[in-house]
Amino acid sequence: MLNPGPIADAIAAALAAIPDLAAAMTVTDANGNAICRINSFHYRLGQEHTRAMVVYKMPAPSMLVVWDGTQGGNFDGETMWKHRFHVYFRMGNMAGSNDPVGYEELWTLVCNGIPTGSSVNIRYMNLLPGLNIMDTPSDAHAVDEDLVDRFVGTFIIPEIGDN
Amino acid sequence: MATPALNFSQYNQVFLEQGGISVTFTPQDASGAQQLQAIVMPPALAEEIMGGAGSAVLRLWVDFQAISPQPQEGDLFTVGGVTYVVAKPEAEPVSTGGAVLKLRTQ
Q1: How far does CA A6 lie from the centroid of its chain?
Q2: Cα distances (Å, whole numbers) of residue B71 to A96, A138, B51, B75, B86
Q3: B28 with A96: Cβ contact below 8 A
Q4: Number of alpha carbons in the 13 Å side-chain half-sphere of residue A66
Q5: Residue A163 covered by a domain
Q6: Is residue A147 part of a domain?
Q7: Does residue A53 have a pLDDT over 70?
Q8: What global pTM score does this model have?
Q9: Which of A55, A122, A147, B85 is most buried, taking the most CB atoms under 10 A from its CB?
Q10: For residue A29, is it within any domain?
């Protein structure tokens, strides 16, 4: 079985390589540097905050890829493991924007945007050796602790055989 | 004799002077930034950084009825050098006149 950690990193890297999505998630810091806020989370108690706190503290805009668990089973002749990832979205402040990028546009970019260097969108990419293409992804509305809208995408990625 | 209606809002400025911090409010209507007094309120989840000292999420109580224009979603507040976006204003009844502004870093 593959370590899900590098898979989360690969998902975040692929999403950050989608030009329009990266642009929607990029801000300028106090020093004038552009920062793309598409990141992956890893469970590192003592080094990182808890997952719940990291999600709670997400600035707007930002995206966060989190491993949510792995389903084992005899799915078919070649699949034993399906890794599940959540992609948390926070859209940016669209006050005064004539061309707002909302959750609808962000999810469309995730599903249909072509990452730089790829010929296909993320749904048809083999993100790492040993991984099959993902099952058809899903996205769902949620509200945060302040009753503000956010969305959570779900990627389920099967392994090829047992690695 | 009829009991006069309670008007707690008359004490709002007293509360702000006693327990408020200075914040900068920048409305999106281009009317310009203004200084306000606001009281830091407990957030939904406490962070490792105290509210008002650079936390990612911040709740501020303000004398809503005394502010013009009244804060709305998308307006900006700067607190301790950190800029926050108003994600959700929660106004109180007219008798108290305040509002809790739910802010998030941008």
Answers
A1: 13
A2: 15, 35, 19, 6, 8
A3: yes
A4: 18
A5: no
A6: yes
A7: yes
A8: 0.91
A9: A122
A10: yes
Number of separate domains in chain A: 1
* A29–B contact, CB cutoff 8 A: no
Residues of B in contact with A49 (CB under 8 A): 48
Phi-psi region of A161 (alpha: psi -120 to 50; beta: other; left: phi over 0): left
Residues of A in contact with B28 (CB under 8 A): 95-96
pLDDT at residue B4 in the model: 66
| A99–chain B nearest CA distance, Å | 15
Q: B21-45 pLDDT, tens per residue?
A: 999 999 999 899 999 999 999 999 8
What CATH class has B8-105?
mainly beta
Q: B47 and A57 in contact by Cβ < 8 A?
A: yes
Whether A56 and chain B come into contact, CB under 8 Å, resolves to yes
Q: What does the pLDDT read at residue B105?
A: 93
Range of the domain at A86: 4-158
Segments making up each domain of chain B, as ranges: 8-105
In a domain, A13, yes or no: yes
What is residue A84's DSSP assignment? Answer: E
pLDDT in tens, A83-115: 999 999 999 999 988 999 999 999 999 999 999
Rounded to whole angstroms, what are the CA distances from B106 to B42, B55, B92? 20, 12, 26
How many beta-carbon pairs below 8 A join chains A and B?
51
Q: What is the CATH number of the domain that holds A107?
A: 3.30.2000
